[in-house]
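Supplementary Note 2. Why include the ligand at all?

Several targets in our set were suspected to adopt different conformations when bound, so apo predictions alone were not considered sufficient. For every target with a known small-molecule partner we therefore ran a joint prediction. The input for 6-O-phosphono-beta-D-fructofuranose is given below.
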Amino acid sequence: MTSPTDRSRLLVLANRLPVRRVRTGDRSEWETSPRGLVAALGPVLESHPGEATWIGWTGITGEHHDPFRVDGVLLDPVEMSRGEVQLFYEGFCNSTLWPLYHDSIIRSEYHRTWWDAYVTINRRFTEHAARRAEPDAVVWVHDYQLQMVPAMLRAVRPDVRIGLFLHIPFPPVELFLQLPWRRQLLHGLAGADVVGFQTRGGAANFRSLVERLNIGEVDGADVIVDGRRVQVGVFPIGVDAARIAQIAADPATIDRAAEIRASLGDPETILLGVDRLDYTKGIARRIEAFAELLSEERLEVPRHVLVQVAEPSREAVLGYSDIRDRVDGLVGEVNGAYGLVGAPAVTYLHRSQSTEELVALYRAADVMLVTPVRDGMNLVCKEFVASRLDNTGVLVLSEFTGAAEALSDALLVNPYDVDGLKNAIDRAAHLPTAEVTRRMAALRKSVTTDDVYAWARSWMVALGLDTAPAEPPADTATPRQETPA
Ligand code: F6P
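The joint prediction is reproduced in C-alpha coordinate form.
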Protein backbone atom coordinates (compact mmCIF):
# COMPACT_ATOMS: atom_id res chain seq x y z
CA MET A 1 0.00 0.00 0.00
CA THR A 2 1.17 3.52 -0.65
CA SER A 3 0.03 6.67 1.02
CA PRO A 4 0.14 10.24 -0.25
CA THR A 5 2.55 11.00 2.59
CA ASP A 6 5.18 8.36 1.71
CA ARG A 7 8.57 10.05 1.45
CA SER A 8 11.95 8.91 0.15
CA ARG A 9 15.58 9.70 0.65
CA LEU A 10 16.34 9.29 -3.08
CA LEU A 11 14.06 10.64 -5.78
CA VAL A 12 14.47 10.25 -9.51
CA LEU A 13 12.62 12.66 -11.77
CA ALA A 14 12.41 11.82 -15.46
CA ASN A 15 9.87 12.63 -18.12
CA ARG A 16 8.83 8.99 -18.30
CA LEU A 17 8.22 6.43 -15.59
CA PRO A 18 10.01 3.10 -16.01
CA VAL A 19 6.65 1.63 -16.96
CA ARG A 20 4.21 3.13 -19.38
CA ARG A 21 0.53 2.82 -20.06
CA VAL A 22 -0.28 1.42 -23.49
CA ARG A 23 -3.76 1.58 -25.00
CA THR A 24 -5.07 -1.11 -27.32
CA GLY A 25 -8.62 -0.48 -28.44
CA ASP A 26 -10.60 0.59 -25.38
CA ARG A 27 -8.26 -1.19 -22.91
CA SER A 28 -4.95 -0.01 -21.50
CA GLU A 29 -2.23 -1.81 -19.58
CA TRP A 30 1.23 -1.28 -18.10
CA GLU A 31 4.35 -2.29 -19.96
CA THR A 32 8.04 -1.60 -19.40
CA SER A 33 8.97 1.71 -21.03
CA PRO A 34 11.11 0.85 -24.04
CA ARG A 35 13.55 3.65 -23.41
CA GLY A 36 17.25 4.14 -22.97
CA LEU A 37 16.89 6.11 -19.77
CA VAL A 38 14.92 3.31 -18.16
CA ALA A 39 17.52 0.78 -19.20
CA ALA A 40 20.19 2.92 -17.57
CA LEU A 41 18.44 3.74 -14.29
CA GLY A 42 16.58 0.48 -13.67
CA PRO A 43 19.62 -1.47 -12.46
CA VAL A 44 20.82 1.47 -10.41
CA LEU A 45 17.61 1.82 -8.44
CA GLU A 46 17.19 -1.92 -8.01
CA SER A 47 20.52 -2.01 -6.23
CA HIS A 48 19.93 1.12 -4.12
CA PRO A 49 19.36 0.38 -0.43
CA GLY A 50 16.12 1.80 0.94
CA GLU A 51 13.13 2.83 -1.07
CA ALA A 52 13.54 5.27 -3.91
CA THR A 53 10.75 7.21 -5.61
CA TRP A 54 10.55 7.71 -9.37
CA ILE A 55 8.41 10.61 -10.51
CA GLY A 56 7.41 10.63 -14.19
CA TRP A 57 4.68 10.60 -16.82
CA THR A 58 2.72 7.46 -17.70
CA GLY A 59 2.89 8.15 -21.44
CA ILE A 60 -0.90 8.39 -21.70
CA THR A 61 -3.54 11.06 -21.11
CA GLY A 62 -7.02 10.92 -19.64
CA GLU A 63 -6.28 8.37 -16.89
CA HIS A 64 -5.58 8.88 -13.21
CA HIS A 65 -3.17 6.53 -11.41
CA ASP A 66 -2.27 6.62 -7.74
CA PRO A 67 1.37 6.01 -6.77
CA PHE A 68 2.33 2.32 -6.76
CA ARG A 69 5.37 0.14 -6.13
CA VAL A 70 7.37 -1.85 -8.68
CA ASP A 71 10.49 -3.81 -7.64
CA GLY A 72 10.80 -1.80 -4.42
CA VAL A 73 10.60 1.57 -6.19
CA LEU A 74 7.65 3.88 -5.51
CA LEU A 75 6.34 5.17 -8.84
CA ASP A 76 4.57 8.50 -8.60
CA PRO A 77 2.76 9.36 -11.87
CA VAL A 78 2.61 12.95 -13.11
CA GLU A 79 -0.50 13.61 -15.17
CA MET A 80 -0.66 15.62 -18.38
CA SER A 81 -3.65 16.53 -20.51
CA ARG A 82 -3.62 15.90 -24.27
CA GLY A 83 -3.14 19.65 -24.82
CA GLU A 84 -0.19 19.70 -22.43
CA VAL A 85 1.43 16.77 -24.22
CA GLN A 86 1.14 18.69 -27.49
CA LEU A 87 2.58 21.93 -26.10
CA PHE A 88 5.14 20.48 -23.65
CA TYR A 89 6.32 17.11 -25.04
CA GLU A 90 5.69 17.43 -28.77
CA GLY A 91 6.21 21.20 -28.73
CA PHE A 92 8.85 22.69 -26.44
CA CYS A 93 10.74 19.48 -25.61
CA ASN A 94 10.89 17.88 -29.02
CA SER A 95 10.32 20.68 -31.54
CA THR A 96 12.25 23.44 -29.73
CA LEU A 97 14.91 21.92 -27.48
CA TRP A 98 15.61 18.59 -29.21
CA PRO A 99 16.58 20.07 -32.61
CA LEU A 100 18.38 23.03 -31.02
CA TYR A 101 20.45 20.79 -28.75
CA HIS A 102 21.26 18.54 -31.72
CA ASP A 103 23.06 21.18 -33.78
CA SER A 104 19.83 22.60 -35.28
CA ILE A 105 19.71 19.74 -37.79
CA ILE A 106 16.16 20.88 -38.41
CA ARG A 107 14.95 24.33 -37.47
CA SER A 108 13.67 24.80 -33.93
CA GLU A 109 10.32 26.47 -33.44
CA TYR A 110 9.85 29.06 -30.71
CA HIS A 111 6.33 29.55 -29.37
CA ARG A 112 5.42 31.30 -26.15
CA THR A 113 2.55 28.88 -25.49
CA TRP A 114 5.01 25.96 -25.66
CA TRP A 115 7.32 27.68 -23.20
CA ASP A 116 4.40 28.37 -20.83
CA ALA A 117 3.51 24.66 -20.90
CA TYR A 118 7.16 23.75 -20.23
CA VAL A 119 7.12 25.93 -17.11
CA THR A 120 3.76 24.49 -16.01
CA ILE A 121 4.88 20.88 -16.34
CA ASN A 122 8.25 21.53 -14.70
CA ARG A 123 6.35 23.11 -11.80
CA ARG A 124 4.11 20.05 -11.57
CA PHE A 125 7.14 17.73 -11.34
CA THR A 126 8.59 20.07 -8.71
CA GLU A 127 5.43 19.87 -6.60
CA HIS A 128 5.53 16.07 -6.68
CA ALA A 129 9.21 16.10 -5.66
CA ALA A 130 8.68 18.63 -2.87
CA ARG A 131 5.90 16.41 -1.46
CA ARG A 132 7.83 13.15 -1.72
CA ALA A 133 11.30 14.20 -0.52
CA GLU A 134 12.37 13.40 3.06
CA PRO A 135 14.20 16.21 4.85
CA ASP A 136 17.71 16.51 3.29
CA ALA A 137 16.79 14.05 0.53
CA VAL A 138 18.66 13.69 -2.73
CA VAL A 139 16.73 14.54 -5.89
CA TRP A 140 18.22 13.36 -9.17
CA VAL A 141 16.63 15.09 -12.15
CA HIS A 142 17.02 13.74 -15.68
CA ASP A 143 17.27 15.37 -19.03
CA TYR A 144 16.16 18.25 -21.17
CA GLN A 145 12.46 17.94 -20.39
CA LEU A 146 13.02 19.07 -16.77
CA GLN A 147 15.69 21.77 -16.85
CA MET A 148 13.63 24.25 -14.79
CA VAL A 149 13.08 21.81 -11.92
CA PRO A 150 16.36 22.42 -10.04
CA ALA A 151 15.73 26.15 -9.46
CA MET A 152 12.01 25.63 -8.82
CA LEU A 153 12.72 22.91 -6.27
CA ARG A 154 15.47 24.84 -4.54
CA ALA A 155 13.03 27.71 -4.01
CA VAL A 156 10.58 25.51 -2.09
CA ARG A 157 12.91 22.85 -0.61
CA PRO A 158 16.32 24.43 0.08
CA ASP A 159 17.20 21.44 2.32
CA VAL A 160 17.43 18.87 -0.52
CA ARG A 161 20.51 18.11 -2.61
CA ILE A 162 19.78 18.34 -6.33
CA GLY A 163 21.57 16.83 -9.29
CA LEU A 164 20.62 17.22 -12.94
CA PHE A 165 22.00 14.98 -15.66
CA LEU A 166 21.54 15.99 -19.28
CA HIS A 167 21.41 12.84 -21.41
CA ILE A 168 21.54 14.73 -24.70
CA PRO A 169 24.16 17.17 -26.02
CA PHE A 170 24.35 20.68 -24.57
CA PRO A 171 24.74 23.04 -27.52
CA PRO A 172 27.41 25.58 -28.39
CA VAL A 173 26.90 29.19 -27.29
CA GLU A 174 25.85 30.48 -30.74
CA LEU A 175 22.98 28.01 -30.96
CA PHE A 176 21.75 28.27 -27.37
CA LEU A 177 21.60 32.07 -27.71
CA GLN A 178 18.70 31.68 -30.16
CA LEU A 179 16.44 30.62 -27.29
CA PRO A 180 14.15 33.44 -26.19
CA TRP A 181 14.13 31.86 -22.70
CA ARG A 182 17.88 31.23 -22.52
CA ARG A 183 18.39 33.06 -19.22
CA GLN A 184 15.51 31.29 -17.50
CA LEU A 185 16.81 27.88 -18.62
CA LEU A 186 20.34 28.58 -17.40
CA HIS A 187 18.99 29.77 -14.05
CA GLY A 188 16.85 26.64 -13.95
CA LEU A 189 19.88 24.37 -14.39
CA ALA A 190 22.03 26.40 -12.01
CA GLY A 191 19.52 25.70 -9.24
CA ALA A 192 21.16 22.26 -8.95
CA ASP A 193 24.12 21.39 -6.71
CA VAL A 194 25.55 19.25 -9.50
CA VAL A 195 24.91 19.68 -13.22
CA GLY A 196 26.22 16.74 -15.24
CA PHE A 197 26.89 16.36 -18.95
CA GLN A 198 27.84 13.44 -21.18
CA THR A 199 30.93 15.14 -22.61
CA ARG A 200 33.57 17.70 -21.82
CA GLY A 201 32.21 19.79 -24.69
CA GLY A 202 28.73 19.98 -23.12
CA ALA A 203 30.17 21.05 -19.75
CA ALA A 204 32.37 23.68 -21.43
CA ASN A 205 29.37 25.05 -23.37
CA PHE A 206 27.43 25.41 -20.12
CA ARG A 207 30.27 27.28 -18.40
CA SER A 208 30.70 29.59 -21.40
CA LEU A 209 27.00 30.42 -21.42
CA VAL A 210 26.87 31.11 -17.68
CA GLU A 211 29.67 33.61 -18.15
CA ARG A 212 28.43 35.08 -21.41
CA LEU A 213 24.93 35.80 -20.08
CA ASN A 214 26.24 37.02 -16.70
CA ILE A 215 24.39 34.29 -14.83
CA GLY A 216 27.45 33.68 -12.63
CA GLU A 217 31.21 33.22 -12.66
CA VAL A 218 33.32 30.30 -13.74
CA ASP A 219 35.60 28.91 -11.03
CA GLY A 220 37.74 26.06 -12.33
CA ALA A 221 35.36 23.39 -13.60
CA ASP A 222 32.45 24.79 -11.57
CA VAL A 223 30.32 27.90 -11.66
CA ILE A 224 29.37 30.23 -8.82
CA VAL A 225 25.79 31.50 -9.11
CA ASP A 226 24.29 33.82 -6.47
CA GLY A 227 27.22 33.01 -4.19
CA ARG A 228 26.52 29.27 -4.43
CA ARG A 229 28.90 26.72 -5.99
CA VAL A 230 27.36 24.58 -8.72
CA GLN A 231 29.50 21.55 -9.52
CA VAL A 232 29.73 21.08 -13.28
CA GLY A 233 30.70 17.49 -14.04
CA VAL A 234 31.23 15.11 -16.93
CA PHE A 235 29.49 11.76 -16.37
CA PRO A 236 29.61 9.66 -19.56
CA ILE A 237 26.85 7.08 -19.21
CA GLY A 238 27.53 3.39 -19.84
CA VAL A 239 25.52 0.21 -20.33
CA ASP A 240 24.85 -2.80 -18.13
CA ALA A 241 27.70 -4.69 -19.81
CA ALA A 242 27.49 -7.71 -17.47
CA ARG A 243 23.83 -8.26 -18.24
CA ILE A 244 24.39 -7.92 -21.99
CA ALA A 245 27.33 -10.33 -21.79
CA GLN A 246 25.12 -12.80 -19.94
CA ILE A 247 22.46 -12.62 -22.65
CA ALA A 248 25.14 -12.85 -25.37
CA ALA A 249 26.55 -16.03 -23.78
CA ASP A 250 23.13 -17.68 -23.49
CA PRO A 251 22.85 -20.69 -25.85
CA ALA A 252 19.43 -19.42 -26.96
CA THR A 253 21.05 -16.16 -28.15
CA ILE A 254 23.86 -18.03 -29.89
CA ASP A 255 21.31 -20.20 -31.71
CA ARG A 256 19.21 -17.19 -32.64
CA ALA A 257 22.28 -15.36 -34.01
CA ALA A 258 23.11 -18.39 -36.18
CA GLU A 259 19.49 -18.53 -37.33
CA ILE A 260 19.60 -14.83 -38.31
CA ARG A 261 22.77 -15.35 -40.33
CA ALA A 262 21.33 -18.40 -42.05
CA SER A 263 18.07 -16.61 -42.89
CA LEU A 264 20.11 -13.85 -44.56
CA GLY A 265 21.87 -16.49 -46.69
CA ASP A 266 25.06 -16.70 -44.61
CA PRO A 267 26.60 -13.53 -46.07
CA GLU A 268 30.28 -12.74 -45.81
CA THR A 269 29.45 -9.47 -44.04
CA ILE A 270 26.33 -8.37 -42.22
CA LEU A 271 26.26 -4.64 -41.63
CA LEU A 272 23.88 -3.61 -38.85
CA GLY A 273 22.18 -0.37 -37.82
CA VAL A 274 19.99 -0.12 -34.69
CA ASP A 275 18.40 3.23 -33.94
CA ARG A 276 15.31 5.06 -32.83
CA LEU A 277 13.82 6.43 -36.05
CA ASP A 278 15.10 9.96 -35.43
CA TYR A 279 16.55 12.50 -37.87
CA THR A 280 19.60 12.84 -35.60
CA LYS A 281 20.68 9.23 -36.19
CA GLY A 282 21.95 9.58 -39.77
CA ILE A 283 20.03 6.52 -41.01
CA ALA A 284 19.34 7.87 -44.49
CA ARG A 285 22.96 8.96 -45.06
CA ARG A 286 24.12 5.51 -43.96
CA ILE A 287 21.79 3.71 -46.41
CA GLU A 288 22.85 6.10 -49.18
CA ALA A 289 26.53 5.38 -48.48
CA PHE A 290 25.83 1.63 -48.57
CA ALA A 291 23.95 2.05 -51.87
CA GLU A 292 26.87 3.95 -53.44
CA LEU A 293 29.25 1.20 -52.36
CA LEU A 294 26.97 -1.32 -54.08
CA SER A 295 26.74 0.78 -57.21
CA GLU A 296 30.55 1.04 -57.35
CA GLU A 297 30.80 -2.73 -56.74
CA ARG A 298 32.99 -2.20 -53.72
CA LEU A 299 30.31 -4.21 -51.88
CA GLU A 300 27.97 -6.72 -53.44
CA VAL A 301 24.68 -8.44 -52.56
CA PRO A 302 24.35 -11.23 -51.34
CA ARG A 303 27.93 -11.22 -49.95
CA HIS A 304 27.30 -7.95 -48.14
CA VAL A 305 23.90 -7.02 -46.71
CA LEU A 306 22.56 -4.37 -44.37
CA VAL A 307 20.07 -4.97 -41.54
CA GLN A 308 18.50 -1.77 -40.25
CA VAL A 309 16.33 -1.76 -37.12
CA ALA A 310 14.45 1.52 -36.66
CA GLU A 311 12.25 1.81 -33.61
CA PRO A 312 9.18 4.01 -34.23
CA SER A 313 9.50 7.20 -32.21
CA ARG A 314 7.68 10.54 -31.64
CA GLU A 315 5.49 10.03 -34.67
CA ALA A 316 3.36 13.11 -33.94
CA VAL A 317 6.41 15.40 -33.71
CA LEU A 318 7.70 17.68 -36.49
CA GLY A 319 10.36 16.07 -38.67
CA TYR A 320 9.70 12.46 -37.67
CA SER A 321 7.21 11.53 -40.40
CA ASP A 322 9.59 13.08 -42.96
CA ILE A 323 12.49 10.87 -41.87
CA ARG A 324 10.20 7.86 -41.82
CA ASP A 325 9.08 8.52 -45.41
CA ARG A 326 12.67 9.15 -46.49
CA VAL A 327 13.97 5.89 -45.00
CA ASP A 328 10.98 3.89 -46.31
CA GLY A 329 11.59 5.29 -49.79
CA LEU A 330 15.34 4.69 -49.69
CA VAL A 331 14.99 1.08 -48.55
CA GLY A 332 12.60 0.47 -51.45
CA GLU A 333 14.93 2.12 -53.96
CA VAL A 334 18.05 0.28 -52.80
CA ASN A 335 16.29 -3.09 -52.71
CA GLY A 336 14.77 -2.41 -56.13
CA ALA A 337 18.17 -1.58 -57.57
CA TYR A 338 20.46 -4.10 -55.84
CA GLY A 339 18.37 -6.77 -54.09
CA LEU A 340 18.19 -10.32 -55.43
CA VAL A 341 15.36 -12.83 -55.24
CA GLY A 342 15.47 -14.03 -51.63
CA ALA A 343 18.34 -11.66 -50.77
CA PRO A 344 17.36 -8.04 -50.12
CA ALA A 345 20.21 -5.53 -49.92
CA VAL A 346 18.55 -3.93 -46.88
CA THR A 347 16.44 -5.83 -44.37
CA TYR A 348 14.40 -3.14 -42.66
CA LEU A 349 12.61 -3.69 -39.33
CA HIS A 350 10.47 -0.72 -38.35
CA ARG A 351 9.49 -1.87 -34.87
CA SER A 352 10.89 -2.35 -31.35
CA GLN A 353 12.89 -5.48 -30.61
CA SER A 354 13.33 -7.26 -27.30
CA THR A 355 16.74 -7.00 -25.65
CA GLU A 356 17.33 -10.69 -26.42
CA GLU A 357 16.64 -10.18 -30.12
CA LEU A 358 18.87 -7.09 -30.23
CA VAL A 359 21.75 -8.96 -28.61
CA ALA A 360 21.27 -11.82 -31.10
CA LEU A 361 21.47 -9.24 -33.91
CA TYR A 362 24.60 -7.72 -32.37
CA ARG A 363 26.15 -11.18 -32.26
CA ALA A 364 25.08 -12.01 -35.80
CA ALA A 365 26.56 -8.81 -37.28
CA ASP A 366 30.10 -8.28 -38.56
CA VAL A 367 30.03 -4.51 -38.75
CA MET A 368 27.96 -2.17 -36.57
CA LEU A 369 27.15 1.19 -38.13
CA VAL A 370 26.50 3.93 -35.56
CA THR A 371 26.56 7.13 -37.60
CA PRO A 372 24.40 9.85 -36.00
CA VAL A 373 24.93 13.45 -37.02
CA ARG A 374 24.69 14.30 -33.32
CA ASP A 375 24.08 12.09 -30.26
CA GLY A 376 24.47 12.74 -26.53
CA MET A 377 26.19 9.38 -25.91
CA ASN A 378 24.69 6.51 -27.95
CA LEU A 379 24.27 3.30 -26.00
CA VAL A 380 23.75 1.03 -29.02
CA CYS A 381 27.45 1.08 -29.85
CA LYS A 382 28.30 0.17 -26.26
CA GLU A 383 25.73 -2.65 -26.24
CA PHE A 384 27.24 -4.02 -29.46
CA VAL A 385 30.72 -4.02 -27.93
CA ALA A 386 29.44 -5.59 -24.69
CA SER A 387 27.92 -8.46 -26.67
CA ARG A 388 31.13 -9.30 -28.63
CA LEU A 389 32.58 -11.70 -26.07
CA ASP A 390 35.11 -13.17 -28.53
CA ASN A 391 36.60 -9.81 -29.66
CA THR A 392 35.13 -10.06 -33.15
CA GLY A 393 33.12 -7.37 -34.94
CA VAL A 394 33.97 -3.89 -36.16
CA LEU A 395 32.38 -0.68 -34.94
CA VAL A 396 32.01 2.26 -37.32
CA LEU A 397 31.23 5.23 -35.09
CA SER A 398 30.35 8.85 -35.73
CA GLU A 399 32.69 11.43 -34.25
CA PHE A 400 29.57 13.33 -33.25
CA THR A 401 28.44 10.88 -30.59
CA GLY A 402 29.40 11.30 -26.94
CA ALA A 403 30.67 7.71 -27.10
CA ALA A 404 33.41 8.67 -29.57
CA GLU A 405 35.24 10.53 -26.78
CA ALA A 406 36.13 7.19 -25.15
CA LEU A 407 35.81 4.71 -28.03
CA SER A 408 38.71 5.87 -30.16
CA ASP A 409 39.42 2.27 -31.26
CA ALA A 410 36.30 2.30 -33.39
CA LEU A 411 36.61 3.38 -37.02
CA LEU A 412 35.63 7.01 -36.42
CA VAL A 413 33.76 8.84 -39.17
CA ASN A 414 32.32 12.22 -39.98
CA PRO A 415 28.83 11.24 -41.20
CA TYR A 416 28.57 14.40 -43.32
CA ASP A 417 31.58 13.24 -45.38
CA VAL A 418 29.97 10.74 -47.76
CA ASP A 419 33.28 9.51 -49.17
CA GLY A 420 34.78 9.20 -45.69
CA LEU A 421 31.74 7.23 -44.54
CA LYS A 422 31.90 4.94 -47.58
CA ASN A 423 35.61 4.34 -47.07
CA ALA A 424 35.05 3.49 -43.40
CA ILE A 425 32.26 1.00 -44.22
CA ASP A 426 34.37 -0.57 -46.97
CA ARG A 427 37.38 -0.75 -44.67
CA ALA A 428 35.30 -2.24 -41.84
CA ALA A 429 34.02 -4.97 -44.16
CA HIS A 430 37.58 -5.90 -45.12
CA LEU A 431 39.55 -5.27 -41.93
CA PRO A 432 42.26 -7.89 -41.21
CA THR A 433 41.35 -10.22 -38.35
CA ALA A 434 44.28 -9.19 -36.16
CA GLU A 435 43.20 -5.56 -36.35
CA VAL A 436 39.55 -6.46 -35.66
CA THR A 437 40.63 -8.30 -32.51
CA ARG A 438 42.96 -5.58 -31.32
CA ARG A 439 40.37 -2.86 -31.77
CA MET A 440 37.50 -4.81 -30.22
CA ALA A 441 39.59 -5.86 -27.20
CA ALA A 442 40.38 -2.20 -26.49
CA LEU A 443 36.73 -1.18 -26.95
CA ARG A 444 35.59 -3.95 -24.62
CA LYS A 445 37.95 -2.80 -21.93
CA SER A 446 36.42 0.66 -21.99
CA VAL A 447 32.77 -0.46 -22.20
CA THR A 448 33.03 -3.07 -19.45
CA THR A 449 34.99 -0.82 -17.09
CA ASP A 450 32.94 2.34 -17.64
CA ASP A 451 29.58 0.61 -17.36
CA VAL A 452 26.28 1.92 -16.03
CA TYR A 453 27.25 0.94 -12.47
CA ALA A 454 30.45 2.99 -12.65
CA TRP A 455 28.38 5.90 -13.96
CA ALA A 456 25.84 5.51 -11.14
CA ARG A 457 28.62 5.28 -8.54
CA SER A 458 30.15 8.53 -9.72
CA TRP A 459 26.72 10.18 -9.45
CA MET A 460 26.13 8.73 -6.00
CA VAL A 461 29.44 10.19 -4.86
CA ALA A 462 28.62 13.58 -6.40
CA LEU A 463 25.21 13.53 -4.71
CA GLY A 464 26.61 12.50 -1.33
CA LEU A 465 24.95 9.06 -1.42
CA ASP A 466 28.14 7.04 -1.73
CA THR A 467 27.57 4.85 1.31
CA ALA A 468 26.21 1.98 -0.79
CA PRO A 469 27.90 1.70 -4.15
CA ALA A 470 25.75 0.33 -6.94
CA GLU A 471 26.84 -3.13 -8.07
CA PRO A 472 25.29 -5.37 -10.65
CA PRO A 473 22.55 -7.37 -8.92
CA ALA A 474 23.37 -11.07 -8.54
CA ASP A 475 20.54 -12.06 -10.87
CA THR A 476 20.58 -9.85 -13.93
CA ALA A 477 18.54 -12.14 -16.07
CA THR A 478 15.19 -10.29 -15.84
CA PRO A 479 13.94 -9.88 -19.40
CA ARG A 480 13.41 -6.25 -20.22
CA GLN A 481 12.28 -4.54 -23.38
CA GLU A 482 15.04 -2.19 -24.39
CA THR A 483 15.70 0.15 -27.22
CA PRO A 484 18.12 2.54 -28.67
CA ALA A 485 18.39 5.76 -26.66
O1 F6P B 1 17.89 10.49 -25.32
C1 F6P B 1 16.92 11.24 -24.71
C2 F6P B 1 15.62 10.51 -24.57
O2 F6P B 1 14.67 11.28 -23.91
C3 F6P B 1 15.81 9.19 -23.86
O3 F6P B 1 15.67 9.28 -22.49
C4 F6P B 1 14.79 8.32 -24.49
O4 F6P B 1 15.25 7.02 -24.52
C5 F6P B 1 14.66 8.84 -25.89
O5 F6P B 1 15.12 10.17 -25.85
C6 F6P B 1 13.26 8.78 -26.47
O6 F6P B 1 12.43 9.56 -25.73
P1 F6P B 1 10.89 9.76 -25.75
O7 F6P B 1 10.25 8.68 -26.55
O8 F6P B 1 10.49 9.74 -24.33
O9 F6P B 1 10.65 11.11 -26.36
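Residues 15-16, 35-37, 143, 167-168, 313-314, 376, 485 surround 6-O-phosphono-beta-D-fructofuranose (CB under 6 Å). The chain has a mean pLDDT of 93. Comparable summaries for the other entries are listed in the accompanying table.
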